[in-house]
TrEMBL record:
<protein>
    <recommendedName>
        <fullName>Phytanoyl-CoA dioxygenase</fullName>
    </recommendedName>
</protein>
<dbReference type="InterPro" id="IPR008775">
    <property type="entry name" value="Phytyl_CoA_dOase-like"/>
</dbReference>
<dbReference type="Pfam" id="PF05721">
    <property type="entry name" value="PhyH"/>
</dbReference>
Length: 212
């Protein structure tokens, strides 16, 4: 099957002290193919202290017991659409990777395995490919070097596309207003009228709120 890629590419720079919180890409781009994949590419050699990407092992799987924490996450957070749900902020589920240890308590599952975050050092030009349902984050940049990376999206050409990111009509520009998540979005203390917050949705879904 011939692959196609989004017309929009995400070039990112992570400053000293910065990181990306825990999230899945599906909440930003879920109006097209279910086979959509993210390809993350570091543009420099990266050590573990340079805001490398980390993935939560097994978080994308849907074949777990109905009451497992990851299944609940896939049935709630994964069905969010940041534009449709008028979400204010980044779209991150949490900024604390240790919070996923609480999923067992939330779902009353006593025998689920502990979450495992996986990462590594990267060389320039390496690629990391994962699904829209994979929980991932980046570590804190502990260096004074700007971490540069690019992430792109790929899917089968014969699958439906998300019109926010692929031009179906060459005369119509991409709607950059709706691609701000992952580019310009940030958490603000003041909530705009008509907007919702991740805290609101987490409480509605029944996830524990980390008050630390």
């Amino acid at each position: 099957v011939r692959p196609i890629t989004f017309g929009y590419k995400w070039l990112r720079g992570m400053h000293q002290g910065g990181n990306t919180g825990c999230h899945m890409d599906r909440v930003y781009m879920n109006r097209g193919s279910s086979q959509l994949l993210t390809c993350w590419i570091p543009l420099d050699n990266l050590t573990l202290d340079m805001s490398v990407l980390a993935v939560l092992e097994g978080s994308h799987r849907m074949d777990r017991p109905d009451e497992s924490g990851y299944t609940k996450l896939q049935n709630t957070y994964a069905n969010m659409d940041v534009d449709r749900d008028k979400l204010q902020g980044t779209g991150w589920f949490t900024q604390d990777p240790m919070e996923f240890y609480q999923l067992n308590d939330v779902s009353e599952t006593k025998d689920a395995s502990a979450p495992v975050w996986k990462t590594t050092a990267f060389s320039a030009g390496d690629i990391l490919i994962f699904t829209m349902r994979t929980i991932h984050m980046s570590s804190i940049n502990l260096t004074n070097t700007l971490r540069l990376s690019c992430d792109t999206r790929w899917q089968p050409a014969n699958e439906p596309v998300d019109p926010r990111f692929i031009q179906q009509d060459k005369k119509m520009p991409l709607d950059h207003a709706e691609t701000k998540f992952g580019l310009y979005a940030k958490s603000d203390d003041k909530i705009e009228d008509g907007k919702t917050t991740m805290e609101h949705w987490r409480e509605k879904w029944g996830f524990l709120i980390n008050s630390s």
